[in-house]
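W.,

You were right to be curious about this one. When I first looked at the sequence I had no strong expectations either way, so I just let the prediction run and decided to look at it fresh. Below is the sequence, 259 residues in total, followed by the output.
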Amino acid sequence: MFTARRWWENKGLQIVLLALVFGSAWTLRQTQGALVMEIYLGIATPLKTLQPGNTPENRIREAKLLELQTRIVELESQNQKLQSLLGYVEKEPLAKRPIVARVIGRSAGHWWQQVTLNSGTKAGIQKGFVVKAEGGLVGLVESVTPNTSRVLLVSDLKSQVGVTISRTSAKGVLRGDSSSEGVLEFYEKVPNVKVGDLVSTSTYSKKFPAGVPVGRIKSLDLKKLPTSVAKVELFPPIRYLDWVTVYPGPENTDPEQPN
């Protein structure tokens, strides 16, 4: 009896520890760690609650603050754009000052073709009015309602703009390419033009006033038949249009075609 008690005193603690280890391992395997997670959450949750910076009220307050900061940044950005646009408008003679409008609609399926403005006939906009933005020509008002206008963009495949090369006066027709670039077809077989030349609306244009910036020559194909062509990088930020200015256009709105 004495020997058994002494043996238990020497080995009992080891046996208990081994039993705990094997028991814990079996429990982890059966519960796939769920029990350990429950124990952790039981200990960690009260500690998190005690931390003043992690209370639900503080998290809601921080979320509201971030929302307000985001709105302030957006308003400041819009204010800067408007100030720049209004400064440009004020330089125009009073009788020729354009109508300032904002892009409020753009179909995902017609991203490069059309935009909708928040002003229409009530603001004085009519079909055939010219639309510009920072950088130059944006497009032409295609249809209007009392409070909205739909604009056909210069990037539309249907768009045709009579243009000229500012450096040499070489002329042609710019067609949309459903992208931030356009395709310029020259009237001349071998025009005097090079990469980097600036492009603007020409005096031959029937839909747009002359001298409105359009873009820059990006690449040339002078061997193209039946006429030489160029890729034109459009200046206006067609992809990111926001605020625009709208002007009365020329009376003649017949489609433009090369001679």
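Here's what jumped out at me. The longest strand covers residues 136-144. And, maybe more interesting for your project: The radius of gyration is 35 Å.

Coffee later to discuss?

I.
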